[in-house]
Design a protein that fits this description.
The two termini are 36 Å apart. The chain has a domain of 218 residues. It is elongated. It has a 4-stranded mixed beta sheet, with helices on both faces. By secondary structure, it is mainly α. Helices cover 74% and strands 4% of the residues. Bound molecules: zinc ion. The site of zinc ion (ZN) has 4 residues, from helix 11 and helix 14.
Length: 414
């Protein structure tokens, strides 16, 4: 008779003890609420207002992009730019590259008031910008030059493909664009990022040693970790993984190092290690390529129909005519707006995976929760579930704090 009773006692102890230990010492809900309630009143309203305002910016941005491309067609600017390109060179393969500069510059100039409002004045109004207007405009101009070079190369390749296979160009077009994307991701940490910021080694000290030890536990060498002076541009805490293959690296901005506690910095570093170790850049490139493939397919089916109907009025001859580019722009702009919830969710799933990885790697659940609170200065902290799926490309502060506290409850019972 004693054995079954003993067995039952052991069973009950096994069931009750772990949950009781957690319930007595640590309650996930109370701990989560404790963090979330740190953001209150005017500060919370401001953060909500800033982030919710951002829901509408892509809608207006798309509308403006469609209108501007409409102007290029309606007033035959596109056809005229193509005529000039054809007069400059007889080489058909080069004409799209010549078209790229005036098209990009005119488009940028028309949309400039909108860009200045969204990227400078709106950010300045919320106190995030650390640059004067002149400094900001200078960087925009450099960005424009880099953009024109990239777009020229892209258009030369894409339209060469379209000329060879006017019906099914979207397949090879997607493959070549993806290869080009990989190339830009590969070279950007070495040739583009240093144009805007200085990338240096982290200062020696116990924090650096901790971070290097954490990285080495996952076979990430110390020379893959950089610090960059982003306080030059803005006040936001940020870190990222950039590059591809042997140029892949983790970069922490100086705002994080200056405003974060060692526990918070380690928590962020654990998250970035997650992106690095799990090869999220690969995954993002693959996802973006697939989505772009669908976009190109839509263009290949819709644009010829539009040209058949209105081509004469616009001066656009066929889908392989570079003057058709504004039509590509209109279809892509509407398509990318429509799939925003999908792209946001795919990125958010990666981010959530990196969050969990980071909790395990850094073992700093409270550091992670408190840095999530600091990030909530510019990301609405407690959205509804549908709102988070549609508009959030990172988990909300609430999701992150709760994940950290759940992890803490499971892994640090004392
Ligand atoms: Zn991330």
């Amino acid at each position: 008779m004693r054995y079954p009773v003993l067995g039952l006692t052991i069973l009950f102890t096994a069931i009750l003890l772990p949950s009781m230990a957690v319930a007595v010492d640590f309650d996930v809900e109370t701990a989560t609420r404790g963090y979330l309630d740190q953001l209150q009143g005017e500060e919370r309203e401001r953060s909500d207002r800033y982030f919710e305002g951002g829901y509408w910016l892509p809608v207006w941005g798309t509308l403006i992009a469609v209108l501007v491309d409409g102007l290029f067609l309606r007033f035959r600017w596109s056809a005229r730019i193509r005529d000039v390109a054809e007069r400059i060179t007889k080489w058909r393969w080069l004409q799209p590259a010549i078209y790229a500069a005036p098209y990009t510059i005119i488009g940028t100039v028309i949309t400039l008031p909108w860009t200045i409002y969204t990227d400078f004045f709106r950010e300045k109004a919320y106190g995030f910008v650390n640059q004067s207007f002149g400094e900001w405009a200078g960087e925009q101009a450099i960005g424009l030059v880099i953009g024109i070079i990239a777009i020229s190369i892209f258009l030369m390749i894409l339209f060469a493909v379209i000329r060879r296979m006017p019906k099914n160009w979207w397949i090879l077009g997607t493959i070549t664009t993806s290869l080009l994307l990989i190339f830009f991701v590969l070279v950007s940490p070495i040739y583009i990022a240093p144009i805007f910021n200085d990338y240096t080694e982290m200062e020696d000290g116990p924090l650096k040693n901790d971070i290097i030890a954490m990285a080495q536990a996952y076979d990430v060498p110390a020379d893959k970790i950089y610090v960059f002076n982003q306080s030059k541009q803005h006040d936001r805490i940020s870190a990222n993984v950039s590059g591809f293959a042997n140029t892949m690296r983790i970069s922490l901005n100086d705002n994080l190092l200056n405003k974060g506690t060692p526990e918070e910095i380690k928590a962020v570093m654990g998250h970035e290690l997650g992106h690095y170790v799990k090869g999220h850049i690969w995954r993002i490139i693959l996802i973006m390529s697939l989505l772009l493939g669908i976009g190109f397919f839509l263009i290949s089916r819709l644009v010829p129909k539009l040209i058949a109907k209105h081509g004469e009025r616009w001066g656009v001859r066929s889908v392989s005519d570079i003057a058709a580019l504004p039509l590509f722009g209109i279809v892509l702009a509407i398509y990318s707006l429509a799939i925003t919830p999908i792209t946001n969710s795919l990125i958010r799933i990666n981010e959530s995976e990196a969050d969990l990885f980071g909790l395990q790697a850094a073992n700093e659940p409270d550091g992670f929760a408190s840095i999530a609170m600091k990030l909530s200065a510019y990301r609405k902290i407690e959205p509804g579930p549908i709102e988070e799926i549609i508009f959030f490309d990172h988990p909300s502060g609430e999701t992150r704090v709760r994940m950290a506290m759940e992890w803490k409850a499971k892994n640090l019972p004392d």
